[in-house]
Design brief:
Length: about 210
């Protein structure tokens, strides 16, 4: 397990995990304000967010482009042990070509903790014949004075869209790649990245 302290001096963190297998314990510092973006490809990774310092504010965006029979297993465990904290976790996966994706998300707010804002959002877009998809959001709230929510959605790309693109002369592979790029652009637009960070983020998708 790798233990990582996110200092309050840090603002934006961008990482890529590819062919990786590890467990990360992440502890945001007191009064920290962090945005974390991660691209995960063909990996089995666990992120354990240990919220033990007050006034920690964390937004996490995980993008999983699982294509070409890739397997991704992502576990996200968030334990709230301090007051006046916010953690929003967003996981978006693109699945095609016999990809296998397992997403387990857990939010746990301990007894007596106050003024917490916790959100877990999971979405998977099926672009082709995915092999296995599992989204399991889990919420345990032991304190009344908090806001907490989770949401999971799986949607399939409209086959008529693929048919239309192929009728215009595109191969199935090129049509899918265009849809992936288009959908990725929509995602990136939601991430509030500046132009320099957008270029780096797109390079990680390759």
């Amino acid at each position: 397990m790798q233990k990582i302290i996110w200092k309050k001096s840090e603002k934006n963190i961008l990482r890529k995990y590819e062919n990786d297998e590890d467990i990360f314990q992440i502890i945001p510092d007191f009064d920290s304000n962090i945005k974390f973006w991660a691209v995960i490809k063909n990996s089995q990774i666990s992120f354990n967010f240990d919220i033990q310092n007050e006034n920690a504010n964390v937004e996490c965006y995980f993008l999983i482009p699982a294509i070409e029979s890739q397997t991704v297993k992502l576990d996200i465990i968030t334990n709230f042990k301090a007051n006046n904290t916010k953690v929003w976790i967003n996981v978006i996966a693109l699945a095609s070509d016999n990809a296998s994706i397992t997403l387990d998300g857990n939010l746990h707010i301990e007894s007596g903790i106050k003024n917490v804002d916790a959100k877990l959002y999971e979405e998977t877009l099926l672009l082709w014949n995915a092999k296995y998809i599992s989204l399991i959001p889990w919420l345990r709230v032991d304190s009344p004075d908090v806001k907490a929510s989770h949401w999971a959605k799986i949607q399939r790309i409209n086959p008529e869209r693929l048919f239309y693109m192929q009728s215009r002369g595109l191969s199935p592979e090129k049509a899918i790649n265009m849809i992936i790029n288009s959908y990725s652009e929509q995602i990136v637009d939601k991430l509030w990245l500046d132009e320099k960070w957008k270029e780096e983020f797109y390079s990680m998708l390759q």
